[in-house]
Amino acid sequence: MTTTDIRPDTGPEKAVRRPSRLLRNLSSKVAMVPLIFTALVIFLGGTIWTVVYSFTKSGLLPRLSWAGLDQYERLWSSRKWIVSIENLAIYGVFSLIGTLVIGFILAALLDRKIRGEAVFRSIFLYPFALSFIVTGLVWQWILNPELGLQSVVRDLGWQSFTFDPLNNPNIVMFGLLIAGLWQGTGLIMCIMLAGLRGIDEDIWKAARVDGIGTVKTYIRIVIPMMRPVFVTSLVLIAAGIVKLYDLVVAQTSGGPGISSEVPAKYVMTAMFGGQNLGQGFAASSMMLLMVVIILIPWAYLEFGGKKHG
Amino acid sequence: MKLSTQLLAATAICAASSAGAVDLEVMHWWTSGGEAAAVTKLAEAWDATGNKWVDGAIAGGGDTARPIMVSRIIGGDPPAAFQFNHGRQAEELIDAGLLLDITDVAEAQGWKDIVNPPSLLDSCTVDGKIYCAPINIHSWNWMWLSGPAYEKAGLEMPTDWNGFVESAEALRAAGVTPLAMGGQAWQQAGAFNNVMTIAIAGKDAWLSVMQDKNAETVMGPEYTAAFEAYAAARELATGINVQDWNQATNALITGEGGAQIMGDWAQGEFAVAGLTAGKDYGCLPGLGLGAYLQTGGDAFYFPVNDDPEITAAQKELAALLLSPEVQVSFNSVKGSLPVRGDVDLTTVNECTQKGLDLLANGQTLPASEQLISPDTITQLNDLMTEFWNTPSMTAPEVQQQYADIIASAE
């Protein structure tokens, strides 16, 4: 919104020609130049460069020797890539649902004005202060059958207890998920809590007068009112899912075998381990494509059409 | 001598050394106990020349370290020297003119005459120019046996792979996991690509696959036997879940694991733990079947630098790395073999002696890294680690996919 537009037309200024659209708010536009430059050159330029080079035979260094769709053919015939995509889907779905549900429940519990709220809030938010590498290592130790959870429970007397997700290819993604949820829910909880605090007290009073139960009030009234908060959380969680890499490297390094590989790790391994930039670029272009396919229709619905509310 | 003269002399020495003292950052991935002890030897030798060794160790093995090194070189902030396995890993960096040509050092020091086997120097040579200083010979082709584990089972240590397989049941009965294998892909793939294939399929079949990229040989009877042995090894390795190779070696030291297929660098760990070769641990080069050593190893490369002082120091370091004293002190700690045939490792143990004998007899083969590209190695690593961790995957399946990768290799 520009302030010039709403200024009432007073005598002398009426004669002044309205400034052209381009020059309006010149100072803020000048201030935006570095950002626009960054967005165009670094993000857009880098993206185009990557996509272009994904059609080449680039090895350790980028070279413009065309290979057509070879890199993509090899990518989609690679078992590891398929496994990576499946893993990302599993992790994505469970992490999205898990983080939202747990984050909301924790926030709702804290919102009930319990004693020592600040203490619990700090405890839940604390894991977020750790990097994924630390989180991954900590959970690698906790889930290690000889040192961690399994051995503790066995020492307590339950000898047959077995909990060893990181060495079982079928459930290794859930081992990662535990660590991911442990780290990520705190932040979402805080955002949700802020949203809950933004709900007018009168809504609660009105609901109470009408005799609506607490849980029902949350589900039917409060959650629909918190739509913007959920959108923010969703964007944060989704970004975390797509870039999932460091947690895997620290916790399982893709193992056992290739059962916890993720696309971002495929890209890194192809580019630097295999010294095959073309293959890595092809994989990262596919990652971009997937994000675009999911994001654009959603963003259009959310932000493009009529304003909600 | 008067005090003032002494002071003058001392100042002169300080001035002289500070003028020539150059800090060189050296990047490598030697971080396990034995490896770190060996690097200290290099650093000590370099510091003794009045220069300073700035250690740039990267934990996590070559697959983690190489990307970091390459990105620093491409990004214009290269270290003064860095470790690579010599072979095809640095090909493109050389093509792009990013690495220093050290042919003059090599000629001055007569590397052509002293480096043994000569293939090590060939791997450093591109278009007649030498770009790296080989520092050691590493061979993958060893199986290590745990003395404590065989003691527990009340057995003599076997003398070859077949004897080991036969002893597996008794080891299991004694509560020992017969084969200790780390969880990283390069270990699981290396045990097959470098050790079991050469030992079981034989030298000619291996060269046909790795050198000539002959996919038909992969489907042939020799390789079939190797794949079957590998599938059997997979069964023998269930029970120990560790990631790093030195953790698997540690299982042998404690007697939890019976044997490990791992390169000679494992010997550094036995040495750090104070074990004696032949008594506390045994070694079978080439699984005791066909004793050939692959002569891969580590080499130092030197990125091109604008500063002539650093360039001079890089060349000085290159010369130092191949000096007889450094070769002996470094390699005897690391458990690897020296790159020059004319040095005397007087204190070698039984296992190193076996390696030296094979070297002297010329029973050597190139390392896989010298024959196939990193891209192909990555593909093979992915395939073999998938097989190793997927019990439902059968030997014929993996054989077919292996052949496909070899067929498409450059």
How would you summarize the topology of this molecule?
The complex is a heterodimer of chains A (309) and B (410).
Chain A: H1 3-6, H2 11-15, H3 26-53, H4 70-76, H5 79-111, H6 117-125, H7 132-142, H8 149-155, H9 172-197, H10 201-209, H11 214-225, H12 227-242, H13 246-251, H14 263-273, H15 277-304
Chain B: H1 3-20, E1 23-28, H2 33-48, E2 52-57, H3 62-74, E3 81-85, H4 91-95, H5 103-109, H6 111-114, H7 119-124, E4 125-126, E5 129-130, E6 132-134, E7 142-146, H8 147-153, H9 161-173, E8 177-179, H10 185-201, H11 203-210, H12 215-219, H13 221-236, H14 245-254, E9 257-261, H15 266-272, E10 281-285, E11 293-294, E12 298-301, H16 308-321, H17 324-334, H18 350-360, E13 364-365, H19 368-371, H20 374-389, H21 395-407
Parallel strand pairs in B: 1-2, 1-3, 8-9, 11-13
Antiparallel strand pairs in B: 3-12, 4-5, 6-12, 7-9, 7-10
Helix pairs in contact in B: 2-17, 8-9, 10-11, 10-13, 10-20, 13-21, 20-21
Short description:
The complex is a heterodimer of chains A (309) and B (410). Helix content of chain A is 69%, strand content 0%.
Can you give a write-up of this model?
The complex is a heterodimer of chains A (309) and B (410). Chain A is an all-alpha fold and 309 residues long. In chain A, 69% of the residues lie in helices and 0% in strands. Chain A contains 15 helices and no strands. Chain A is flat, with a radius of gyration of 25 Å. In chain B, the strands form four sheets. In chain B, strands 2-1-3-12-6 form a five-stranded mixed β-sheet, sandwiched between helices. In chain B, strands 8-9-7-10 form a four-stranded mixed β-sheet. Chain B has a two-stranded antiparallel ribbon with strand order 4-5. Chain B is of the alpha/beta class. The longest helix of chain B has 18 residues, at 3-20. Chain B is globular. The model of chain B is unreliable at 8-19 (pLDDT under 50). The A-B interface holds A 59-61, 78-80, 145-146, 164, 167, 169, 253-259, 268-276, 279 and B 63, 66-67, 70-71, 74, 89, 91-93, 95-96, 183-185, 241, 243, 373-375, 377-379, 382-383, 385-390.
